[in-house]
Specification:
The protein has 110 residues and is mainly alpha-helical. The chain has four helices and no strands. Helix 3 crosses helix 4. The termini are far apart. Residues 1-21 form the signal peptide.
Length: 110
């Protein structure tokens, strides 16, 4: 009986983790759409700017990069990913900015 309970609880935990991940990406995706980020970026492939997966890969492992990403999004940046600069995005709310940067620092899971 204990084994059945353990298997059942483990299954519920796995399902709830998947739901949380989906919900988090849904919130991030909503913020990306609302702030017009997807006009130049995609999750998996390069558009005008790098993919979010590329940005996440380049910034993983160094918590200081979170602040660099915040600044790049809000104030714009040029010359990092090619000749086309990223314009400033002052309209991005602090909540959306935190959500997007945390998602990138987590590896841009989707």
């Amino acid at each position: 009986m204990k084994l059945k309970s353990l298997v059942f609880c483990t299954s519920l935990l796995a399902l709830s983790s998947a739901a949380v991940a989906d919900t988090d990406f849904a919130k991030v995706n909503e913020a990306l759409q609302k702030n017009n980020c997807l006009a130049c970026h995609a999750v998996d492939n390069k558009l005008v700017g790098p993919s979010y997966v590329e940005v996440a890969e380049a910034n993983k492992g160094d918590p200081a990069n979170a602040e660099k990403l915040r600044n790049a999004i809000k104030n714009g940046i040029g010359g990092v990913w090619g000749p086309i600069p990223m314009p400033p995005n002052p309209q991005v709310s602090d909540d959306d900015l935190t959500l997007i940067v945390d998602w990138l620092m987590a590896g841009a899971p989707h």
